[in-house]
Design brief:
single chain, alpha+beta, Ribosomal Protein S5, domain 2, Alpha-Beta Plaits, 2 domains, 9-stranded mixed β-sheet, 4-stranded antiparallel β-sheet, 11 helices, 13 strands, 25% strand
């Protein structure tokens, strides 16, 4: 059995500039971090005395004898990619719900790719894991998604990820002291709106217009990454929170499906409850909100949102990893 452990991510600034349709023309940059909430995927050979050849366990249990009969699209395409012939069992467990803006789809792909490559006894670098996962999600699945989530999940850490016109990327740790990172971490909370949505569908509604109708807004959003890194380097943590507020109001102008009356009502209440700023995570439309709240207002904030799930978290640095491996058999 092999078990992969892959973190979820939080994207602070620059979201949207990581879409190939944008950065191949203008370049792009995001500031993001992975957190101590994980997606676990187990992968083991299924003995041939079972009536089925493949067992896939997630929100449902699938039993199949042929890969083409597997309903889970990612698993089916992944097994086709690696030309699986031997029996296999895959099980998925996540700390956070899917389709909630935390990059879960990409974390699943990265974790699955990592587990299967190790099952096949192939050592794979963080960079290659990110590249293979990007290719899989964007070219094989043909999803309209950005390129930051796969890289964040593969590398881990609090990083600036730069995208270049030639489709290459660069990952650099954000310049922030450990003390200021702890202060920032202590002032951030996740609030679950309860609304799940497909990022692909939300992004589809506005991505095609980014380089034309929304180019000015996008260039400003891209510039926020420079400001954010400066504030973190200088220890201007509250300015980082204020910038989240400014960025959120600008991001909403990219597409009508990014926000809603319900989402706006949550945000307005959060500001009145002491938050300096925040944003809906991922493509928009629902899922998790990230809020920045000064220490003296956190208790008030949590009390005012007692009907919602509030989640505290810690930044993490490792990225996708194999935490258990006793497989010795290579894919046939």
């Amino acid at each position: 059995m092999i078990i992969s452990k892959t973190p979820y991510r939080i994207s602070f600034f620059g979201g949207g500039t990581d879409y190939p349709s944008w950065y191949t023309k203008f370049g792009g940059e995001v500031v993001s971090t992975t957190i101590d909430k994980y997606l676990y995927l187990t992968c083991r050979e299924l003995p041939n005395f079972f009536e089925h050849k493949y067992r896939i366990v997630y929100s449902k249990i699938e039993l199949a004898n042929k890969i083409k009969d597997i309903e889970h699209l990612v698993v089916r395409k992944m097994l086709e990619k690696f030309k699986f012939n031997s029996g296999l069992e895959l099980q998925y467990i996540g700390d956070l719900p899917a389709q909630s803006g935390m990059g879960s789809s990409s974390s699943f792909i990265v974790g699955c790719m990592n587990a299967i490559q190790n099952y096949n006894r192939n050592k794979i670098s963080n960079k290659q894991l990110a590249l293979d996962s990007l290719n899989f999600e964007q070219k094989i699945l043909k999803e309209i998604v950005g390129s930051q989530d796969q890289i964040a999940a593969a590398y881990g850490g609090f990083n600036s990820i730069k995208f270049y016109k030639n489709k290459k990327f660069e990952v650099n740790k954000v310049n922030i002291t450990d003390k200021n990172k702890e202060i920032l971490n202590s002032r951030l909370l996740l609030l679950y709106t309860g609304n799940q949505r497909r990022a692909h569908h939300i992004a589809q509604s506005y991505v095609k217009n980014l380089t034309r109708d929304k180019a000015n807004e996008m260039k400003i959003l891209q510039g926020y990454t420079v400001k954010a890194k400066k504030y973190l380097k200088n220890g201007s943590i509250d300015d980082f929170g204020d910038l989240l507020n400014e960025s959120w109001h600008l991001k909403k102008r990219l597409g009508k499906k990014i926000s809603s009356d319900f989402i706006d009502s949550i945000y307005d209440k959060a500001i009145k409850s002491g938050s300096l700023g925040g944003k809906i995570l991922g493509a928009g439309g629902g899922g998790f909100f990230l809020f920045y709240i000064n220490e003296e207002n956190i208790e008030k904030f949590i009390k005012n949102f007692s009907k919602f799930q509030i989640i505290k978290f810690k930044f993490e640095n490792k990225g996708s990893s194999i935490i258990f491996n006793n497989e010795t058999k290579k894919i046939k």
